[in-house]
Design a protein that fits this description.
Catalyzes the hydrolytic deamination of adenine to hypoxanthine. Plays an important role in the purine salvage pathway and in nitrogen catabolism. With 327 residues, this protein is an alpha/beta fold. It has 17 helices and 8 strands. The chain has one domain: TIM Barrel, CATH 3.20.20.140. 49% of the residues lie in helices and 15% in strands. Helix 8 packs parallel to helix 9. The protein binds hypoxanthine and zinc ion. The site of hypoxanthine (HPA) has 11 residues, from helix 3.
Length: 327
């Protein structure tokens, strides 16, 4: 049995496996620009974040009905439970759907049908993080948050994703302020392809509690010191960083250095259907590539629960499971 862990950086649209994409395309009469699952597999070679996003948004077109979103989330839960995931905070990108005519309600009702009972059925507690697409306008983000208002009891936080460079966090100051008024917590992708200054801006202007990716923090020693001092979690995604060419190869990944510096780093899968593995495969990958030992692995599992948006008794229960685990 794998070590118990929380997954905190997982885009539900990024769990769309080629087989399910073809099944949904068939069911919905949607066109896919690939002749077969094999041909689609070959398209999973990316130059950078944008080249990945182009395929990611293209494939979301097969997701059209509530049932499609339910099937997608069910498949993830099944997979995550085999990986020892005990708690998942799941990103979703409403604007990837509303901009092509799928209502917000369809997306959230579909996801919720799978997630509402996840603890009983899969032993996984879950919550949703609504992400704004940062290459769309601030007004579109505000409209998206307004559409979410009837469903706030299903959403723990807001996040920020999509093309980072040229879309600094401050562009979304107003919608994060509104989200905070509504009682939502806040995270943001920063320092993946974008500069360390975006990490500081996400903390200072958006007042986020966690940074998604954040590996470029290492270019700014003063900022590293701040994140260590303030115990700001970083949701690191090793396979994603290699596939999107943020890092040359897994053996060059800075995760171990981040832990040595005292950063509160966690390991996550980002878009596992596209990047070659789910969370346990990411952990096994860095274990081998970076020579991590059992203490590192226990620390990563502990960090994942420290960084999660869960109440104190739940955190204590999960941390006790980590301490009891024998590697
Ligand atoms: N970065 C930015 N946006 C994204 C990602 C990512 O890794 N995955 C899905 N949307
Ligand atoms: Zn991401």
């Amino acid at each position: 049995m794998p070590v118990p862990k929380a997954e905190l950086h997982l885009h539900i649209e990024g769990t769309l496996e080629p087989e399910l994409a073809f099944e949904l395309a068939d069911r919905n009469g949607a066109d896919l620009p690939f002749a077969s699952v094999d041909e689609l597999h070959h398209a999973y070679r990316f130059e950078d974040l944008q080249s990945f996003l182009n395929l990611y948004y293209r494939l979301t077109d097969v997701l059209r009905t509530e049932r499609d979103f339910t099937d997608l989330a069910e498949a993830y839960l099944r997979r995550a439970s085999a990986d020892g995931v005990r708690h998942a905070e799941i990103f979703f990108d409403p604007q990837a759907h509303t901009t092509r005519g799928v209502p917000f309600e369809t997306v959230i009702e579909g996801l919720w049908a799978a997630l509402r009972d996840s603890e009983r059925r899969y032993g996984i507690t879950t919550s949703l993080i609504l992400c704004f697409l940062r290459d769309l306008s601030a007004e579109s983000a505000l409209e998206t948050l307004a559409a979410a208002e009837p469903y706030l009891d299903r959403i723990i936080a807001v996040g920020l994703d999509s093309a980072e460079v040229g879309h600094p966090p401050a562009k979304f100051a107003a919608v994060y302020e509104r989200a905070r008024e509504l009682g939502l917590r806040a995270v943001a992708h920063a320092g993946e392809e974008g500069p360390p200054a975006y990490i500081a801006e996400a903390l200072d202007v958006l007042r986020v509690e966690r940074i998604d990716h954040g590996i470029r923090v290492l270019e700014d020693p003063g900022l590293v010191e701040r994140l260590v001092r303030e115990r700001i979690p970083l949701t690191v995604c090793p396979f994603s960083n290699v596939r999107l060419r943020v890092v040359d190869q897994l053996t060059d990944h800075p995760l171990r250095r981040m832990l040595d510096l005292g950063l509160l780093a966690t390991v996550n899968s980002d878009d596992p259907a596209y990047f070659g593995g789910y969370v346990d495969e990411n952990l096994e990958g860095v274990r081998k590539a970076l020579g991590l030992d059992d203490d590192h692995l226990r620390l990563l599992a502990r960090n994942s629960f420290e960084a999660a948006f869960i109440d104190a008794p739940t955190r204590a229960r999960y941390l006790a499971e980590v301490e009891a685990y024998r590697f």
